[in-house]
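Methods — Computational structure assignment.
A single polypeptide chain was analysed. Its primary sequence is given first, followed by the predicted tertiary structure written as structure tokens.
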Amino acid sequence: MQRAELDAYLDQYLDVAKFRDYCPNGLQVEGRTSVERIVTGVTASFDLLEAAVAARADAILVHHGYFWRGEDPRIVGARRRRIALLTANDLNLYAFHLPLDAHPEVGNNVMLARKLGFEIDGRCGEHDLVFHGRPDIALTVAGLASRIAERLARTPLVIGDPGKRVTRVAWCTGAAQGYLEDAVRLGVDAYITGEASEQTVHLARESGVAFIAAGHHATERYGIEALGAHLAQRFAIEHVHVDIDNPV
């Protein structure tokens, strides 16, 4: 397919114009005009770019790209090495941040719910990024933590009573610890995200809502892979997913 066709489809499918984000969503670095093979990964690290070159990809799709608000805008150091590798190999780089978190079909939050066996009841918060619902079976906080450890292959940080029953849960992938207050207002028993801040622990203890930090990377592995699979099926292009592990 042509890059322009892919651009237009992704902008429409992910409803990019709807979001006020911390970075540009869509095509960030322009490469060749024809796209037959895509590589997906969570973050556009140098290791992922090298894997895409080895896979003879035409485009890379990531959740975490470049040009974040507040960053040094100069193309020096690690950024120069990354962009030089992209341009030398005529590779397109696409990044989708909040649009991928929020998407109702292939989004990070939807895919995490499927992975953890949650039924979705609704959404709230900025851009409706906080999802809430119910686990498919009765669980305690300890049981939920064990399920997360098994299914995400990552031992989570848990703040709360291990024996507390979890009948309602809220979640938002990545660095969404700031939405714990939204979860408290929902009246859920537990809130899951990727990371924790110092103040998060105190709010969790004082509110009685168990807080589980399951890993930024671990909670956001599945949306970008699902997006790549969707594109491969719809447009009959090749898709390779590369998981560059990250302990955070």
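Note: Residues 222-235 form the longest helix (14 residues).
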